From TrEMBL:
The keyword Glycoprotein does not apply. Its EC number is 6.3.4.15. This is biotin--[biotin carboxyl-carrier protein] ligase. GO terms for molecular function: biotin--[biotin carboxyl-carrier protein] ligase activity. InterPro entries: aa-tRNA-synth_II/BPL/LPL, Biotin_CoA_COase_ligase, BPL_C, BPL_LPL_catalytic. Keywords: Biotin, Ligase. It is an enzyme of class 6 (ligase). Residues 1-25 are annotated as: Disordered. Residues 30-220 form the BPL/LPL catalytic domain. It comes from Streptomyces plicatus.
Length: 292
């Protein structure tokens, strides 16, 4: 069964999703026409009006259906979206990009799959720069930052989850048209607040997914090698974390303070500590301690 176009009501007629003309609904038909092509990565694009989490839904679907790589699930509204460490966040309907994709990188060793959130960050930043004219910096491992005034703010995030033995679902959430009074926390941001020249979600989503297709293809062709694919260098160039003093909140209630000096071949953040030791961090919450 093909999900109904999110711009239609249950009986197929337009409904009050058009009530906010500044935030028009996405069209499943238009997105499929613009993204699905012979030989391309994207095989199926579904838009739903409302769900708890596109990641949760797509992981569940992948477990019970034989979903092809390149399945994309987009939501107009998420009510139980999750970030790292199971943090929850929400946003008004049609105010952002909320989507997940199913990838099956069979040619890439599983030990290199940790690069997928970083790859997605590079792809999202590239796509948003091209379409919205907004520079998006990357906070390791999965936050998207924009500048509002002279302040660095989080405008989005990325979450990757395994889907069976051979798949991974990568979810993306980006605040697009949120106004200051709608921000979930004062230090959050959006593309609109960062001065975006375009906040139309249709071309934004197309631009991000085309960029993701491009970067994923390069990475997969290189067998997941971040250096050969150019991913490691590009990520470092767009990083808001490298060169800063940070505190890594690690599993087991441990923390580590040091200068973020590199992202290694496995996608780990390397910290140079006061003891003169370089320590790689593969998982944890990173707090920036000084301005860039």
């Amino acid at each position: 069964m093909t999900p109904r176009d999110a711009s239609e009501s249950p009986n197929g007629s337009p409904d009050n999703r058009w009530s906010d003309l500044g935030r028009p609904p996405l069209s499943t038909t238009a997105l499929r026409r613009g993204l699905i092509r012979e030989g391309g990565l994207w095989r199926r694009v579904d838009v739903v009006q409302r769900t708890g989490s596109t990641n949760t839904d797509l992981v569940a679907r992948a477990a019970r259906e034989d979903l092809a790589e390149g399945t994309v699930l987009v939501a107009e509204e998420q009510t139980a979206a999750r970030g790292r460490l199971d943090r929850q966040w929400s946003a008004p309907p049609r105010s952002g990009l909320f989507f997940s994709v199913l990838l099956r990188p069979a040619e890439v060793p599983v030990r290199r799959w940790g690069w997928l959130p970083l790859l997605t960050g590079v792809a999202v930043a590239t796509g948003l720069s091209r379409v919205a004219g907004v520079d998006t910096a990357l906070k390791w491992p999965n936050d998207l930052l924009v500048t509002v005034g002279d302040e660095e703010r989080k405008a989005g995030g990325i979450l990757a989850e395994r889907a069976g033995d051979d798949g991974i679902v990568v979810g993306v959430g980006v605040n697009v048209s949120l106004r200051a009074e709608e921000l979930p926390v004062p230090r959050a941001g959006s593309l609109a607040l960062a001065g975006a020249v375009n906040t139309d979600r249709d071309p934004l989503l197309r631009g991000v997914l085309r960029s993701l297709e491009d970067w994923y293809g390069r990475w997969r062709e290189a067998g997941g090698d971040p250096s050969v694919s150019g991913l490691q260098e590009t990520y470092a160039a767009g990083s808001a974390t490298l060169g800063r003093m940070v505190r890594a909140e690690l599993p087991g209630d441990r923390s580590l303070v040091g200068e973020a000096v590199a992202v290694d071949g496995d996608g780990r953040l390397v910290l140079a500590t006061g003891a003169g030791v370089q320590e790689p961090v593969g998982a944890g919450d990173i707090v920036h301690l000084r301005p860039a």
